[in-house]
Amino acid sequence: MKTTAAGARESPVITIRNAAAAAKITVHKLRGNVSVLEGSGGNITVLTGRDGKLLVDAGISRPQVEHALARLSDDPVKHLINSHWHFDHTDGNEWLHSIGAEITAHENTRKHLSVTTRIEDWNFTFPPAPAGALPAKLITADETLHLNGTTLALKCYGPSHTDSDISVEFTEANIIDVADTFWNGHYPFIDYSTGGSIDGMIRAAKANVANANDETIVIPGHGPIANKSHLIDFRDMLLAIREKVANLKKKGKSLDEAVAAKPTADYDAKWGGFVIDGSFFTRLVYAGV
Ligand SMILES: [Zn+2]
Q1: Residues with Cβ within 5 Å of ion ligand 1?
Q2: Which end of the chain has fewer CB atoms surrounding its CB within 10 Å, N or C?
């Protein structure tokens, strides 16, 4: 974490919100009428068409996202799916709702957004979200939608990154948005405060590999557009580090001793360059083994 001038640790929430306010959005056109906007918090997936735009995740910063959406097509935004409750995927809920988007999410997303929620690992307390930001259409089990000539298969992971994660598959285009169960090229955050765990992350990573084939385009919550081989790399990284950290804990190493042993050393160059470095990730894994 960065340190502020006053010497206090700056919450990654502040760092990420500030970065999003200044960020440029990159638009990636994928297959069919599916695109991804990268640069405002988590990746935003957009399906365009006559039924209005459908977004998976809302990003953070309105001006850049609004501009990028307008450049994609003239369709109004009608639907927003939140992949989970985290701010970098839901900060944009309120403004998107105000222009006409109906918000769909797992019922736990609404639950966490409705109340004050503390994430100790981010050193941050989220106040309850405004009423307009709360998802109105709630799911607790897998559901299939049909919009813009596309089949959308929504699947609930069960507890993994949080207890509110869902994936969205665009069936005909063979594209799947796997949300924050996959950070392409980065160690992931694991939110134990709302039901996440390393073992849940591993279960989700295995499910993602099983659901993809060699032609599948995979949209991660964070990082560049991916394919099945990237899902396999990520799963294998999680499994290897889990084993190393579990062995240290079994030998009686304290959290600080486990971090000092650098169990992620072989992986840090590839995975440790974003919000979660090797020490932070070791702490997250240690909490769950
Ligand atoms: Zn998240």
Answers
A1: 86, 180
A2: N
